[in-house]
Automatic annotation (TrEMBL):
It holds the Pfam family TctA. It comes from the Bacteria. Keywords: Membrane, Transmembrane, Transmembrane helix. The keyword Transmembrane helix applies. The chain crosses the membrane at residues 43-65, 92-115, 121-142, 149-167, 187-206, 301-322, 342-363, 375-393, 449-469. It comes from Saccharopolyspora montiporae. Residues 3-423 form the DUF112 domain. This is Tripartite tricarboxylate transporter permease.
Length: 490
């Protein structure tokens, strides 16, 4: 029966992951009241299957339609969608599925053997460490992912502005609501994501309709991965897994930060090799972030089970389900509820294999969606995006905001401003603000607390080293250019 619950969970999770705007958190929330009569072990195996399946499925629409099913698949859309437009949708889907499988297996093995050590790592993170981590992600995304640091920082500012709209929870002050009561609750990340990526892309395509055939189709290409694709993917899989593993164990770490960091690392490495396809469909830009994304899922169970601290919306709902069953997660859970914990971890191995078997053979079939003519395809994206955003809160205001943000996405594309920093600012802005305030409250306004931790100092040191390297590289390039100009003049 537990194997059956695992299968049901991964199928439901994959289906929900494919549908933009829903997400695994909503699926688990809807399942909680249905599963009260189940044995706790079977219920949590199904919840974990939904959680895993959602991460796998979120990449499908990100690659095919440039509309991520989950916020953790945002980065996958950058290169995956470009691969799809080049007729390599099946290869993008395959590298996402295989990378997800390998990183999931590695993460579950790590949790099984080193859960106590990961709990210790999670305990060491306080407000100063979280703030340093957010600053690190901000600068890494703006400078590395975007290429142009000035435009990247401008995009980051837009994302941070979107993040602070609404009522400040601590002071009660209204921020950037412009007198509109509908904006007092803030702007949902689903609205921002779907507006920037889906509606923004549709408007961009429509604005350039005269330059491309209106009814052209995107070829789905040859199925499966070639030897060259595997050669280019296996290192990003390993690096992405290594980047994602610690983030799942950090409370409030989430899966978005490691995906952006993995993407930035792969882009920088490709530039050093001199063979970068980033921006036009680099398979490394799909392999690394998808591995980082799924590596966080298993390790996110460590703070949930060992500390009772959820690191995502889905984990928070699972924590509520534990309490409904009269189970209190914490350090004693591994001994008091050993049967449940180890059955849950074992189900993650089984679920990963099920997801590989379910998803990999269907990559070419999913890719056939791209044979739909562009005008029908983009019309469908608009309809499903609108329905998905409206269904989340039944709010017409969210739909209007989605189209306004979509127009902003059109302007960003038109003037070559990067999209990634906007998203990372909107996602991590609230975390950075709340942790900065917590740190200031603890220290009674003493700013030195932000630098009073080895972890925080290490992150700031990496930022400083990266800035120094960037400045030195720019100065060297300028000096070399001036020398060459002098020689040419002579």
């Amino acid at each position: 029966m537990n194997l059956l619950w695992c299968l049901i969970g991964v199928v439901l999770g994959t289906a929900v992951g494919v549908l933009p705007g829903l997400g695994s958190a909503m699926a688990v929330a809807m399942l909680v009241p249905v599963t009260f009569k189940l044995d706790p072990t079977g219920a949590f195996i199904m919840f974990a299957g939904v959680y895993f399946g959602g991460q796998f499925g979120g990449a499908t629409t990100a690659i095919l339609l440039n509309t991520p099913g989950q916020s953790s698949s945002l980065v996958t859309a950058f290169e995956g969608y470009q691969m799809a437009r080049r007729g390599r949708a099946a290869q993008a889907l395959a590298t996402a599925v295989i990378g997800s499988f390998l990183s999931s297996i590695a993460a579950v093995a790590l949790v099984s053997f080193f859960a106590p050590s990961l709990v210790d790592l999670a305990v060491n993170f306080g407000p100063a460490e979280y703030f340093a981590l957010a600053v690190f992600a901000f600068l890494a995304t703006s400078a590395v992912v975007s290429g142009d640091a000035l435009r990247g920082l401008a995009s980051l500012g837009i994302g941070l502005a979107l993040a602070v709209v609404g009522i400040d929870e601590q002071s009660g002050a209204t921020r950037l609501a412009f007198g509109s009561p509908q904006l007092l609750d803030g702007i949902s990340i689903v609205v921002i994501t779907v507006g920037l990526l889906a509606i923004g892309e549709v408007l961009h395509v429509a604005s350039t309709a005269g330059k491309r055939p209106a009814t052209g189709t995107i070829e789905s290409g040859r199925p499966w991965m070639s030897r060259d694709d595997l050669r280019r993917s296996w290192r990003p899989w390993i690096r992405g897994t290594a980047v994602g593993l610690p983030f799942g164990a950090i409370p409030a770490g989430g899966s978005e930060i490691p995906t952006f960091l993995s993407y930035g690392a792969e882009k920088r490495l490709a530039a050093r090799r001199g063979s970068s396809e980033f921006g036009s469909g680099a398979i490394e830009g799909v392999a690394g972030p998808e591995a980082a994304n799924n590596a966080t899922v298993a390790t996110s169970l460590v703070p949930l089970l060992g500390l009772g601290l959820p690191t995502s919306a889905t984990a928070a709902i699972m924590l509520g389900a534990f309490q409904q069953y009269g189970i209190q997660p914490g350090p004693l859970l591994f001994t008091e509820e050993a049967d449940l914990v180890w059955a849950l971890l074992a189900s993650l191995f089984v679920g990963s294999v099920m997801l590989l078997v379910l998803n990999l053979p269907f990559a070419p079939i999913w890719a056939k969606l791209l044979k739909i003519p562009n005008n029908y395809l983009y019309a469908g994206i608009v309809v499903f995006a609108t329905l998905g955003v409206y269904a989340a809160k039944s709010s017409l205001t969210d739909v209007i905001l989605m189209y306004c943000i979509g127009f902003l996405g059109l302007l960003l594309r038109r003037f070559d401003f990067p999209i990634a920093p906007v998203l990372i600012g909107a996602i991590l802005g609230p975390l950075a603000e709340s942790e900065l305030r917590r740190a200031m409250a603890i220290s009674q306004g003493e700013i030195g607390i932000l630098f009073d931790s080895p972890i925080a100092l290490g992150l700031y040191g990496i930022i400083l080293a990266a800035l120094v390297i960037k400045v030195v590289g720019t100065l060297r390039a300028r000096t070399t250019r001036q020398r060459e100009d002098r020689k040419a003049g002579v």
